[in-house]
Each structure stands twice: as structure tokens, then as C-alpha cells.
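Submission sheet (multi-component)
Chains listed below:
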Amino acid sequence: MTDHPISAPGAGIGRSLRVGLLVRRMMGTAGPVLAVVAGLLAIWYLAAIPMNAAQSVTDAERAGAAFDVSAAERRDMGGLSLVALAPGTALAGAYGQERPRLPAPHQVAGEMWASTFALGADCGPAERERDRLELFGRTWAVHEDCLAPVTSRRSLILHAGLTLAPTLLGFAIGSLLGVALAVGIVHSRVMDLSVMPWAIASQTIPILAIAPMIIVVMNSVGIQGLLPKAIISAYLSFFPVVVGMAKGLRAPSAADLDLMRTWGASGARILWHLRLPASAPYLFASLKIGVAAALVGAIVAELPTGAVRGLGARLLAGSYYGQTIQIWSALFAAAIAAALLVAAIGGIERGVLGRMGLRR
Amino acid sequence: MILGVWAALWGANVWVAGRSFGRWLAPVLFGAALLILWEMTVRLFGVPQVILPAPTAIGAAISANVPTLWADFVQTFVKGALSGWAIGCAAALLTALVIDRSGFLRRGVLPVGNFLAALPIVGTAPIFVMWLGFGWESKAAVVVAMVFFPVLVNTVAGLADTQPMQRDLMATYGASPGQRLRYLAAPSALPFVFNGLKIATTLALIGAIVAEFFGSPTVGMGFRISTEVGRLNLPMVWAEIAVAALAGSAFYGIVALIEKRLCFWHPSQRGGRP
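Outcome: structure written.
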């Protein structure tokens, strides 16, 4: 947490430029950040006690403990009053349940560890042959608790990889489209006036509403698999890029533009030699927001399409079967994936801006 | 033929954009052009309705289902999105005021908040539905979780956005903390706050609709969309989308209008091209 990629220089899209500068100025903030994170974890642990109290008391009763209040009356009681009724039982049972209402952080971490690194590898060749999956142009064997850890059906890395593929493709499409639209907007008053309001309006359309339609339409044209999800990702990620690039391409001062014109530079040369370099900080700031949005798009796209693999599918399956720990670990896997993507863009940004001499 | 119509409409748009009334007429014309081209494409190529219904079919679906659409709108937008947005923004503003009193908290919360604001918080939807049931309460809770961090981060950053000179002036006047907030920190934070509020408007509607996919009563926009897709009743689906887009744009527009009234002094509101 010592790096704050979301808020690096020029973070003017969605968040404002000064937020980025402010955060950057506070780089030596490991102490306060750790304190806040520790505080959040403490609240989480405390909240788990009343949230899971009903189940703890029921479990204890099954195990032979007796309570003054009958099961029927307990059903109407809130979590806090149950904790007051049987504090010892509630505390003892809060962190070890199989399907808690609120799993404790260490349970989630354990599940993530188990479904990332500690998957079984004791299967014969027959099981290896049984289930196969095509991805990234390779055949992966997929079977529960089997084979190499990464390719097991429970593996979070497999699910994250399946979600990342449409994320990256959609991000690429969205960014290119965004830059192209921004170039058009800066160069043509007609496009500025007519496209910009509709770009804003397009973001008020709930993406999930369109997701099933895009799948249906593309299916009927014969396109399946990666591309429909990637288009939903692109839909979410193009907007921050348009807004940021439109701002960035207009960043050169009037004096700079006049100088280019006195040299008789054409519009294309001004774009290539002045506007594009000047817009680099804005571009990277919006790319970071765009890539996070693309991941949300890819996850959301899995929900209505009946996907069985991927982080969104893990969320959906977890909610169907009440597997709370699975939901939380999928959620954190998504969070880590988002952080890694943003950090990767931040790394590229530092390199490129450093080469260009724009680094602050 | 489609290309010809497109060229003609674009020409009209170019003509309009050069005039003084082009500011508002150009986007309207652009939208109308899109609709006309959509309708023509569907008619000329005989695109089946289950793939892409024509705008006129969608319009017919809207006018034939006004009571249903209204009930869905109330359930999802008014009960879910709007109440969640109000609660989430109010909670974020109050938290920001508390955090602003302590430099230590501010340094800790800003990076963590920035990190959390970028996370796919829609993923908490199944958890909230599990905790709070299928009613609108769970949708409002998802919306609260989604809008909280963007508003919090923007407000905290905005409250800190005062010049040392201005703070010194306040100290010279002997201003109390309350007065300093009222006359210095709050006004300078307003543009930031509205930035957060505007981001939150679009998030709110998305959150409310997404949450309905994880379980809802038999009313609501998300519920209607998923069931009508299952029945291949696409005009009705598009009708819901149109209502959602309209509601979202209106919501955004209202917040932007309030911002214009309150932040008239800010450079970004004083007109002229950026």
C-alpha cells in the first residue's frame, strides 16, 4: 500500500487532479494506512460475532448446551441480543462455521490460500483425460482436486484468468475507441457537440441491462465466447478514456499551438508532435480507471450469461449455494486482480513518463 | 441508401453546429439520426425482433406497459437507488467531516479509500441480498456500499484543498472550527463533493439493478429485464433500458444543475471551452 496507483499525476477523471497530487504528497503514509487497515480488520472481526451469533447458538444447542430462550423466540432476536444472551457461545462459535453469514478474515484468507496453492495433485492419467478446457490457445486439464494446482476447477487463478482474458481484450478495444473518439472530439466541433452528451448518456444506461442483449445479438451472428464479454468491458472502459483524452489533447497552451502553426505544421503533425505527448499523463490516469472498469465489466458480463467459470460465475454460484466463504474469496481475488492491473499500468506510466521527462 | 441518409443527417448536423442554437440542437439531432438509422437498418435488412427491435417497436412497448414500467421504476429507482444514494452520500459526507479533523486519519483513509473505490464493489451484491433479503433494503445497501468510497475520497480531498494563505487568514480572524468549515473548507470542497455525487448517481442505478439479479421480488427493473430476456420479449427489455437511461440521465442532470447553482464561482462552471 505504499504506492497509490489510482491517484497518480493527472488523475482528473472521475477523481480530480488534486486528489492525485494530494495523495502523492503523502507518500510516507505507511503508518496511518496500516492503522486504518488494522482498524477495518478489527471492526470486521467484531461484526462477525453478532452476525454469526444465531448459527453459533444453534450449533451449541445441537451439541448439548441449554439456553433459557427457546429456538422459536430466538428466531426473532437480533444478533446483538443473542450475544448478550450467550456471550461465551457467540464468541466461541463466531469464527469456525462452515457457512457463516460473515466469514472472518482468516477464513477468507485460508480459502484463498487453499484454492490458489494447496490444491491436491494425487490423480492418475485417467482423471487427467476426463475434463479439458481450451483457453489462450492451449488445452488445460480441469478436474476437481486434481492435477497441477493452477488448473483445478476450484482454482481461483484459473477463474481469475478466465475473467482477465475478456477484461484485457475489452480494455484494449475500449481504450483505442476512446482515444479515437477523443481525437475526433478535439478536431471537430460537430463531434464535440453531438458525441459528448451521448457518451455521458451511454454511461447512465445500466451495463448489466445490455449484457444479455449483446450476448443474444452476437450469438445470432455466430460470435461466442470471449468477444461478447470483451465488448461489455470495452463499453465500460471507453468512457473514462474519452473524457481524459479530450482533456489531455486540449492541454497544450495556446502559445504552444500558435508556435506549431507559425511553423506551418499540419493538423496531423500538431496532433502527433504536440497534442499526443502532452496528453500522456491524462491518458495513463484514465487508463487506470478504465482497466478497473473493464474488470467490473467482465465480472458483470458473466452474471446474466450463465457462465460456469470465472470470478463472476464463482460469485453467482456461491450465492446460489450459500457458500459465503467462496463469495468473499472470489471478491478478494477480484480486488487483487484489479489492484495488480492498476499497478501494472502505473508501472508502465512511470517508465513512459520518465523517458519523456514528464515525471514529477 | 443508409449511407446517403447518414451523410445528409451529418451534413445537417455540421450546418447546425455552426449556428448559435447548435449547442443544444446538435446533440438532439445526433440522437435523432441514430434512431432513424437504427429504424432503417432494422426495416431494410429485416432484422428479427428477437435480435434487435426497431425503435418504434420499443416505443409501442413503452406506451403499452406504462403501469408495469412505473412499478418497476418505483421499486428499483426510488426505493433502491435513490434511498441508497442518499444514505451512502450522507454517511460519506459525515465520515469525511470526522476524518478531516485528524491529519493522521486523513493520511490513512485517503489511500485505502482510493483503493476501495476502484474495487468491483458490485460483487458484494450477493452478500447483501443474503443478509437483508430480497426486498429493496438489500438493493439500497449495495448502493450505499458502492457510492460511499467515491464520495468519501472526493470530500476528504476537497476539505483539505485550502491554501495556506486562506487558512492563515481564518486564523487571524480568530475563526472557530465551525466557522472555518462554514466559510472556507465547505465552499472550497463543494466542487469535489459534486464530482463525487455525480459519479455516485450512475453507480447507484447500476448497483440497484445488478443487485436484483441475485434475487428480488417480482417487480423491479433488473427482475423485469432478466425475465423478459428469458421470454425473448426484447422490445420490453429495451423499454426498461430506455427508462433506466432516462432516469439515470435525469438524475445526473439534476445533480449537475444543483452544482451549477451552488458552484457558479468555480472556473469549470463559468463557461468557455476548457
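Remark: Chain A touches chain B through 74 residues (CB under 8 Å).
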